[in-house]
Each structure stands twice: as C-alpha cells, then as structure tokens.
Write a structure and sequence with these properties.
- This is Large ribosomal subunit protein bL9.
- Belongs to the bacterial ribosomal protein bL9 family.
- Binds to the 23S rRNA.
- The chain has four helices and nine strands, in the order ββαβααββαββββ.
- By secondary structure, it is of the alpha+beta class.
- The protein has two domains: 57 residues, Ribosomal Protein L9, domain 1 (3-Layer(aba) Sandwich), CATH 3.40.5.10; 86 residues, Ribosomal protein L9, C-terminal domain (Ribosomal Protein L9, domain 2, Roll), CATH 3.10.430.
- It is globular, with a radius of gyration of 18 Å.
Length: 150
Amino acid sequence: MAKLILTHEVTGLGAPGDVIEVKDGYARNYLVPRGLATAWSKGAEKQITSIRKARKAREIETLDEAKAIRDSLQSKTVVVTAKAGNGGRLFGAVTTAEIADAVKAAGAPAVDKRKVEVGQPIKALGDYKVQVRLHPEVTATIALQVVAGA
C-alpha cells in the first residue's frame, strides 16, 4: 500500500490535503502521473497545511450561508452562449468553467468550477439542470439555458 497526499479532489478518495493509502499500482499508474497526488513524507506536512488553508479560504463557512447562496442560485436562470451549428448542436460542449463564469455574470455569488456537476455533457442548445455542491450538506440546482451566439 502506498501512502499519498491528495493535491486535487478525487471522487471516492478525498479532498486536497487528505493523507490516503491506496494500492501501489493505482498510485503509480493513475494518481501520481496525473498530478492528483504526491508521495507522503514528513516534509510534505507543510504542503498539507498550505493546501488546507487554501481550501478553507475557498469553502463556504457555514450551513446557513450555503443555504442562502443556494436560494439565490436557484431563483436565477443562468444563460450560457455557445457556438452552434444548424441542427442546434454545439461545436464542443459547455464546460464547468463556462457555467461558473455564467453564474457570476448572472449576478449570483461566484461558484468554483470544481463544484459544478454536469450529469451528461451539454452538447446541444436548450434548457438543462446543473448541480452545484456548495457545502457537504447543501447542493443547489441551477436552471441553465444554452443559447446560440457568436
């Protein structure tokens, strides 16, 4: 078993700064080459504390604050403009970063692109529902409208 420090959020394993133990092959072939984790060492404890401080600064502090932001987000319809062909199909897909930028442009509180969850890739014009994890206990559902543009 390999002992690692996560540098990015990995579904099913943990958040940045968490110390985990995984099988050697998973660490060597997947996590470390993709930059999702680094090998654990005593010197890496400083890295853990800096990652945790950065995460804490980005996190929404309280449950009440998260619920207020959720209510604010759910009351708005977010519009994303994307290039589309004749049949309404997009050239590419709408990314989580584009959704996060559109949320901010709509006058809602800024959302981290890593917290936006899109079920299936959005590759056509129309209306969609997108989840945003604001807090471990609070998830907002945003009405997303994809329209053709420049």
